[in-house]
Amino acid sequence: MSGVEVAVEGLTKSFGTQNIWRDVSLTLPRGEVSVLLGPSGTGKSVFLKSLIGLLRPETGSIVIDGVDILQCSSKQLYEIRKLFGVLFQDGALFGSMDLFDNTAFPLREHTRKSESEIREIVMEKMELVGLSGAETKLPGEISGGMRKRAGLARALVLDPQIILVDEPDSGLDPVRTTYISQLLMDINAQIDATILIVSHNINLARTVPDNIGMLFRRELVMFGPREVLLTSDEPVVKQFLNGTMIGPIGMSEEKDEAQMAHERALVAAGHHAGGVEDIEGVIPQMRPTPGMPIRQGEIRRQDRVRRILPSLPATAQNAILESMADSEYLEELSEGLRPESPSL
Questions:
Q1: DSSP secondary structure of 292-328
Q2: How far apart are CA 11 and CA 34, in angstroms?
Q3: Which of 93, 193, 235, 246 has the fewest Cβ atoms within 10 angstroms?
Q4: Which superfamily is assigned to 6-230 in CATH?
């Protein structure tokens, strides 16, 4: 089983008179890992809830496995939701259940499997996320990182083809965030699921995804291969990726030109604007742990990016070509390395 494509076209969502975002169009390629960035309050979590049908946008379409979930019947939507696994910010575990029962919950609710079958699946998923031996612990007895992994185990028990991950770094230190990122890459290598991560963690965005998008001012600024956003000269993108105060993003609202000019003058006078400005180049992408299967999504991505290369900005083209030229891993993929071949 492998991931499915998710095609979003012209999506607009409001709450009353407040427009959250408008005319959002993007495609999550099957089996690839994508990240959606944006400042706090830009509707990233709302977007995730819309993809799974928990919220209903006013206009547009969301086509999953050939079905537009904004036009389909309740029965069709129920079936489409079975394709999803969702990891919420806090893991969303039931405090009164141990980790085994938390992980088993979707199987007991949505399948007719026997308890012996459920146990086999649960133990497999708990081993996959590194929680073997912790099945009798309660959520309140474990660390935040372990709760994240338990939430991920529960998201995996129905063998999803699409995994949505909401702020995997929330409440975690940078080291644990890296472990969670590595775990997501390893899972993608093993089950070839389509993964969308919503985050504002810059290190995660620079190292994990195949594709990156960014929401700002109620619109999708861009979405595409990671190299496009990581080499972009778009002011809001550069400000966000470099974590600096210089740019259109403010503390509580968008800045006007006068405020931005004032801050540029302060920097020119020697005031430090925070962040790490003008990080050059594209950081190498995180790979699956040695011994894991080769990511099929990466093989498909390489073919896809080669086809669209002429349409990309020159800086992104150069970054893609450099990564292909410098990476023995990608060179072997381009020669048709089979998925069953030993991983590097």
A1: SPPPHHHHHHHHHHHHHGGGS-HHHHHHHHHHHHH-H
A2: 18
A3: 235
A4: P-loop containing nucleotide triphosphate hydrolases (3.40.50.300)
